[in-house]
Amino acid sequence: MSTELRIYLADGSDIDSLRAWLGDIPSVTTEPVARPPQPGEQGGAWDFLMVLCGTNGAVHFALQALTTWIESKETSARVKHGDIEIKLRGPDSEAIARMMEAINPAAQNET
Prior knowledge:
Elements: E1 3-9, H1 15-22, E2 28-34, E3 46-53, H2 56-71, E4 76-81, E5 84-89, H3 93-108
Antiparallel strand pairs: 1-3, 1-4, 2-3, 4-5
Helix pairs in contact: 2-3
InterPro entries: EACC1
Pfam families: EACC1 (PF19953)
């Protein structure tokens, strides 16, 4: 069974960078999801990055990679897994630890 994470970044232009970063993790696939265009826009802006993890081990590695990527950036992000949502602002080790604790056990219960 796969686990889905949705990662919303403050700067949607970073989605391609994060997608490339997560691209080498086995059993993890990523897909940017476009948001509906706003009035006067032609569209094409990313709303979030959908991350599908094939196994619980893949969830752990995806979260570790996300942690490393966020720590290297001055950015904000929201990570969603079902009803769980964690907000991150740049290199915030406490928020990242909360994310790992909240999402990883939830993913383990899906098997």
